[in-house]
Amino acid sequence: MPFAPLSHCRALACGAFLAAAAFAQAPAVDIPAPSPASTLKQRVGLTDIEIVYARPGVKGRKIFGGLEPFGSIWRVGANNATTISFSTAVNFGGKDVPAGKYALFALLGREEWTVILSSANQQWGSYRYDPKDDVARVAAPVVNLGSTIVETFVIDVNHIRDDSAVLNLVWESTLVSVPLKFDVVTKVQAQIEAVMASSAEKKPYVPAAMFYYEHKLDLKKAAQWMDLGIAAQAENFRFPFVYRKALILSAAGDKAGARAAAEASLAGARKAQGSLKDEYVRLNEALLASLQ
């Protein structure tokens, strides 16, 4: 085979070099992701929850029973497997789970999903899912939203209380929920009792009283702490706290005491100036009506 002229070889080499240079210098193109990334951060009581996932869209497709077949393991999102982190231990759908970061998967069914927390929290999709990595598996019923179509997959944390919340997975016309529970009362009650027994000059009388009220703990203590909190307020600004004492007494079954406190708070609210006046007039009147 005859050799190409040197000049021709140089031309070919030069062309290859120029092509490579042009490719290397091509401007970057920022193309939107088909399933954009999302991070949800939510504090529940004393626990920080973080969920990192990608959000696919319906885009005219049949999702469950179609794109995602029943009987298959789904990554609960798109791209990388979805991860969920808890800063404290959690009861996940009835299963106790230590604090940590987990991959979130679901075994899809028509009437029920098995929602899974896996220790293998760094993987693409669910292709390498292995049951041996499961930390918790919980059954969660499928709720059909009827004609409602949720176009973009969403995970949210809702129904938030000090010690509980609900994890919702919503896409197309499907809603699946997993209850979350946290041991808040034991921790906070121990802290409150320790502070109240200490020689601290300032004590959290009002928030401690309301915590005991909201969690149905020792309401006698709660009323006593609220009295101390009320005494620390300026006289013309005691009515919001007196209303809270009325709530505590009502919960304790002391209707006469609750009525007296609500009437005193109502009188103070009517004399007040500013934005709290109308609110506490309304709140006290509603409370008094409920105590009839």
List keywords for this structure.
292 residues, alpha+beta, Serine Threonine Protein Phosphatase 5, Tetratricopeptide repeat, twelve-stranded antiparallel sheet, 7 helices, elongated, disordered N terminus
* Principal-axis shape: elongated
DSSP summary, beta strand count: 12
Low-pLDDT parts are 1-13
Q: What is the domain total for the residues?
A: 2
Helix content: 25-40%
> Measured on Cα atoms, how large is the radius of gyration?
30 Å
Quickly give the structural class: alpha+beta
Please trace the helix and strand order, writing H or E for each element: HEEEEEEEEEEEEHHHHHH
Q: Describe the biggest sheet?
A: 12 strands, antiparallel
Q: For the residues shown, what is the average pLDDT?
A: 92
Report the β-strand fraction as a percent range: 25-35%
Quaternary state of this entry equals single chain
Q: What is the CA–CA distance across the termini? A: 110 Å
Number of helices: 7
